[in-house]
Give the backbone structure.
Amino acid sequence: MKHASRLDAVRVVPVHTRQPPSRARRRAVRWTVVGFAVLFVSVLIGLFAGAVRIPPTGILGWMVGAGTLTEQQRAILAQLRLPRVVLAGLVGAALSVSGCAYQAAFRNPLADPYLLGSAAGAGLGATLVIVLGVADVPFALPAAAFLGALGGVGLAYLMASTRAAGRTSTSLLLAGVAVASFLTAFQTYVQQRDTDDLREVYAFILGRLGTGGWHEVLLALPWVVLASAVLLASRRLLEVLSLGDLEAASLGAHVSRDRAIVVIAASLATAAAVAVAGLIGFVGLIVPHAVRMATGASHRLVVGLSLLFGASFLILCDVLARTVVAPGELPIGVITAMIGAPFFAFVLRRSGGAR
Amino acid sequence: MHWIRSLGGLLFLAISLVGSGCAAASSSAVGGDLSSAVPAFPVTLHAANGSVTLASMPSKIVSISPSATEMLFAIGAGDQVVAADSYSDYPADAPTTDLSAYEPNVEAIAAYEPDLVVYSNDPGDLQTSLDKLHIRALEQPAAATIDDVYAQMQQLGQATGHVTEAQAQVSDLQAQVAQVTASVGDAGAGMTYYYELDDTYYSVTSDTFIGNLLGQLGLTNIADKAKEASSGYPQLSAEYIVVADPTLILLADTKCCGQSATSLAKRPGWADLQAVADGGVVELDDDIASRWGPRILQLLQQVGAAVQERAAA
C-alpha cells in the first residue's frame, strides 16, 4: 500500500518554457550566484566554528597568508578543520546531486540514493570489507562500496527487466525497494555474526565525517567530480527524462540508455560519498526538493544548484555536529534528519506544496 | 573478548551502570555470616535480579559474562564452570563456547543443564525465560566502582562455596591496588589523560568504571568536559584532543583497531602532542580494559607505572 501511494505521487515537473529565455537565464545566473555565495559563507562558518576557539580575525589572516595564529592553531585549521569542511561539502554535493538525478530519472519525488539499493549495496560492500578485516588495504573500502552500489542498482535493473512491462521507472523503483531491503537485511546479518566489529559498522551506518584529514577528501574527490560532471552535462537529458518515457522517446531520447547513464553516474557519486562518510540520510532526498521548491527551477538548473546547496547544507549540519555538545560530537545523520525534516516542511509550506 | 568495542556493548554498559550501584553493594547483606561453623548452603544472595536462593553448591555453572568468568576462576570456582560465552577467553582453561553474551539464547544455555547462570546483561527476557525453566541465575551488571568488583567477587564466592578464597582474593586485590596508588602518590596530580575506545575518538568520562578507576591515580580526564555529549561514552572532537594535549594517552583500541604509539604519530596534527612525542602513550589490552574482573589490577599497574615515568621525566 505504501509503495502504491508513493507511486501515485509521481508527477510531471513542469518545464518553464513559457518564460522568455532571457528571464530564465537571469534567474539561473542569480541563483547560481546565490548558491556560490551561500557555499562561501558556509565554508567560512565551518572554518570559524569548532570545539576549539580560534580568533576569527586570526583565521581570516591565515586564509590570506598572514600569520597571527600559533602553530597549533594553524595545524588544527589546515589538518583537521578544513579537510572536514571540504569532505562535508563533497559528500553533501554528491548525495544531493545523485538524489536529484534519481528523482528526475525515475520521475519519483521519493527517489534518493537509498531507494534504489545503491546506498544499501555500498553499505554491504563496506561492511564486508570491515568484517573481513581488509579495511586497511588501500582503496578496499571505497572500491567495495562502489561495487556494492553498482551491484545494488544492477540487481534492481535485472529484476525490473524480467518483467513483461520492461524497465519502466515504476518497476525499477519497486525492484530497487526490494533490493535495498534484501541488501540491508544481508548486511545486518553479516554484522550481527561479527559482533567484534559492530561498533565500526554502526559508526558507518550512522554516518561519520572523517577523522582521516585530507586522506578521505582525496579518496572521494575524483569520483565526485567525475560523476558530477557527467550529471551536469546530462542536465538537459534529466529534464527530458523527467517528462516521462513516452514523451522523452518522442523527443528523441534513448530512454533506457540515457537513464542508465544517469543512474550509473548517480550511483558513482553515492558510492564515493558512502565510502568516506558512511550512510548519511536525508540529504539526497530533501536538498534537490528544497532547491526546486525555493527556486521554482527546472531540472536543468536544479542539478547544479543541488551540488552547491547540498555542499552548504552538509557543511552547516556538520558545524552543528561539531559544536552543539562540544568538545563532544554528535552523529551527523542525527543532525541532517533533525534539521532537514523541519526545514523541508518549511519549504514545502512556503512554496505551497510540491510541484 | 573485544565486546566493549561494539556500540551495543557500550550502550549496555551505559545502561547497566545505572543499576549497578545498588546491585553490587547489597551482596554484603547476605543472610548468614561467613564463619565456617555455618554451612555454606543453602544460601540466599541479594543480587541485581533480586533474591536468589541456592539450595546446594552449584556444580554446573554457565557464565555468559567474561568478567564473571575471570572472577570465578580467580576464586577457585573454575572447575564448576561448564560453559562460558564466546568472549570468555580468559583464563586459558575457561570453557569458551559459542554462547552469546550479547544476545543470550536461553535454549542454548539450558542445553548445558546449568544449576547456576551468571550474566551481566539481560537484553530483554533472559531472566524471565530462565525463571520459567527454573534455572537459578545471578545478574552481575557492569561495575561502576572498584568496590562493586570486590562485592561481585564476594557474591560469587558465596554462590559457589568459595567464600574464603573470594575474600582472600579481594583482600589481596585491595592491598595491591593500595600499593599502586601509594607508589604513585601525588605524581598524577596535574596530569591529564585521554582514554581512547576506538579510532573515531570515542572516550570515557570519570563517571564510568574505568574513569573512576583511573581517577584513583589522581589523573584528570579530558573527556569530562564532554559529559553532556553522552552518558559516560562521548565521542570527542579531534581538535579538542589536540588542544587539550593530555599528559597520557591510554589506548584501549590496540586490538580492535590496531592503534599504537606509532599509528598515533601519523594522525594529522598528533605528532606534536606531548604524550606522542615524549612516550606518554600507554598501549592497553582492549580485553582487560573492557572488563571489570581481577585483571584490572594489571591495567592500574600499567597506567601507574606510566604516571611515575612521566613524573620522573
Summary: Chain A touches chain B at residues 50-52, 71-72, 75-76, 79-81, 83, 136, 192, 195-200, 202-203, 208, 211-214, 322, 325-330 (CB under 8 Å). Chain A is about 75% helix and 0% strand. The CA atoms of residues 292 and 302 of chain A lie 6 Å apart.
